[in-house]
Amino acid sequence: MLKNKDFLYKNVESIQGKRVGFIKDILISFSERKILGFSVVSTNLFSKNKYITKEDIVSIGESIIYSKYNTGNFLKFSEIRGFEVIDSIGNIVGVVEDILIKEEGLDILGLLISMGLIENLIHGKKIILLDDFILGDKSIFLFNSNKDLEFYTKPHFTFIGDEKR
């Protein structure tokens, strides 16, 4: 499973091997449930930011190698990062911190929600799946009413044995 931070600042090279910049943001489509591509910041001061779509990516490794740039209007993950997640009774569950991405096909699996420093340390961060929320203009509506099935990340120290503490 990948996150936004796995792509940020990754070098971008043309198919000819020329370094052209680095990844600034992920382009997403919740309706298609996929990563559409990436926003690239150019190393040239006079060049505009450009976009590469998933179809034009030749390989993803230490660098991302692409065949051509694209233009268009895309939803960027940075535009929803920090959105409040609100449940069906109006409570703020947390804020969007990261996106969870399947390595094969770059499908969106869900969102990682921060519930505050203390809550994150005690219980971990909450994971909401794609089928459980609706993206709004300024917030995310969480409508999953099934409290029997909730996902959380666990704080790191819970996995360390007593002898390593």
The largest pleated sheet is described as: 8 strands, mixed
Cα-to-Cα separation, first versus last residue: 27 Å
Count up the helices: 2
CATH architecture of the largest domain: Roll
CATH superfamily of the largest domain: PRC-barrel domain
Overall average residue pLDDT: 86
CATH topology of the largest domain: SH3 type barrels
By secondary-structure content and strand pairing, the structural class works out as mainly beta
Beta percentage is 35-45%
Number of strands: 15
Residue stretches low in confidence (pLDDT < 50, at least 5 long) are: none
Describe the structure.
This protein has 165 residues and is mainly beta. The chain folds into two domains: 2-77, PRC-barrel domain (SH3 type barrels); 81-160, PRC-barrel domain (SH3 type barrels, Roll), CATH 2.30.30.240. It is 7% helix and 44% strand. The strands form two sheets. Strands 1, 9, 10, 11, 12, 13, 14 and 15 form an eight-stranded mixed sheet that branches. The longest helix has 7 residues, at 117-123. It starts with a strand and ends in a 13-residue tail after the last strand. The mean pLDDT is 86. Residues 5-67, 74-123 form the PRC-barrel domain.
Short description:
Pfam families: PRC (PF05239). The chain is mainly beta. 7% of the residues lie in helices and 44% in strands.
